[in-house]
Amino acid sequence: MPRSILLASMLALFPVIAVQAQDTTRQVSGTLGYMQRIALPPDARALVVAEGRFGSMLGETTINADGKQVPLGFSMNVPSDLSGRVSAVIRVHGQPRWVLRDLAFGAGDAPVDMGTLILEPVTPLAFATEFTCGDITVSVGVFNKEAVLRAEGRDIPLEPVVSASGARYQGTKDRDTEVWMKGDSAMIRLEGRDLPECREVPPPREQPYRAGGNEPGWMVMLNAETAEISADYGEITHSVTRPDVQVLPGSYVFDMPKADARLTIREGICRDDATGMPHPDAATLRLGERELRGCGGSPEDLLTGPVWQVRAIGEPELIEPDRLSLNFIAPGRVAGSTGCNRLVGDYTLTGEGLQFGAMGSTMMACPEPLMEQERRMIDALEQVVRFDIAEDGALLLIGGPDNRVMIEVARP
User: Fold this and answer.
1) Which residue among 196, 223, 248, 410 has the highest number of C-beta atoms inside a 10 angstrom radius?
2) DSSP at 164
């Protein structure tokens, strides 16, 4: 099942969660184009959507070519003070031909000009289903008669093979690679290596989400089908059907009338008032006549994603800083570059802090100034005990005897 509202709309597989009508909106605009010198027929149609959190649609617009050629202009209104991701598709004769996925825009109330969005020709991976196989995430894309497995940074072409049940594929050239999908699970052999049982990653509207706070000790856990509420350190408990999300300017709302409860999520760094651990959202639970405040989302979501560029390791000026990086690539795994060698290792995130395990590296020799910088980076990582997010979005890795910033990284 596609994970994108855009692709779900293209395939008409399920209804999407739309924003409630609101006066407080802002405009997102831009143009659509592609690099190929191919004219659009008169019946070509483009769909642009803005997706928010929890599987919500913030806005959408359709453009009929009617003889026009790219670039095609688009404009849509979205709720203010929410971030989102723009996706687009151009269909020719009713079939998807060019696509773009998940171009982010930030929260705020000012209009957003996305500029010219360059769409790519449709491939099977545009319709990929994600699976988690132990600590490995893979994608399997199928479109028309083509199929591709994306795993460990590689794209492996597949072809269908006869199966008594489910959908089964084998590597077109690598016959030791197989994918056998049944329902929401899959068995995958990657170059002769059997991966742990693979489970389909649930769509955003079903993914787990936790919010909670201290004094009087409350928690809401949104599961795939239920919402579990606990307050007063467990003296009050409710279990209700997970509600659909409501999208309001600046917030996402989950109404649970059977528990006389409403959970409101607002984007923005929230620090646990007991541990200082940063979370991606602020959360408010109205329970009866009470209003309880806390944080929501996983702190790990603040770490994972695009690569972080190192911009400071203590006071000394960095040598060739563009070559220094950190990338939290999966739960518990981190990679990066010291400017001389590649790093890879583990990290542990607890309710109170962040720690890095022993880091392995390549063994390339570099000029002594770069080797010294590498030693400082590895030593700093070993001393990290917690992290924070600066006002400008930079990641601060904190530790050492003085509880100071050991490494500062930012996204380009």
Assistant:
1) 248
2) S
Element (H, E) at 280: strand 278-287
Look at residues 72, 82, 79, 83 and name the one whose alpha carbon lies nearest to residue 117. Answer: 72
In single-letter form, the type of residue at position 341 comes to N
Burial class, 116, CB count within 10 angstroms (exposed 0-12 / middle 13-18 / buried 19+): exposed
Given a contact cutoff of 8 angstroms between Cβ atoms, the answer to whether 132 and 199 are in contact is: yes
Which residue in this structure is represented by tokens 């773009």?
100
**329-368 residue pLDDT tens:** 877 899 999 999 999 999 999 988 999 999 888 889 999 9
* pTM, to two decimals: 0.87
Whole-angstrom distance, CA of residue 71 vs CA of residue 201 = 35
Is the bond into 160 cis (omega within 30 degrees of 0)?
no
Starting at the edge strand found earlier in the chain, the sheet holding 72-79 runs 17-18, 56-64, 45-51, 84-92, 95-105, 112-121, 25-34, 72-79
Q: How far is 254 from 245, CA to CA, in rounded Å?
A: 5
Instruction: Determine the straight-line distance between the first and last CA of the chain, rounded to whole angstroms.
Output: 32
- The Cα–Cα gap between 172 and 138 comes to 18
Is 273 within 8 Å of 185 (Cβ atoms)? no
Give the tokens for residue 306: 């695009």
Structure tokens at 213: 């706070």
Mean pLDDT of the chain: 92
Write the DSSP symbol of residue 125.
G
Helix, strand or coil, per DSSP, at residue 302 = helix
Cα angle 222, 226, 229; round to 5: 60
User: Which CA distances in Å does 168 have to 128, 133, 202?
Assistant: 15, 17, 21
289: Cβ contacts below 8 Å, ≥ 6 apart: none
Q: How far is CA 143 from CA 147, 198, 357, in A?
A: 6, 21, 41
List Cα–Cα distances, 71 to 10, 74, 90, 172, 227, in angstroms.
Answer: 21, 10, 12, 37, 45
For the residues 319-335, what does the mean pLDDT come to?
A: 90
Confirm if 385 and 277 have CB atoms less than 8 A apart: no
State residue 173 phi and psi, 5-degree precision.
-110, -35
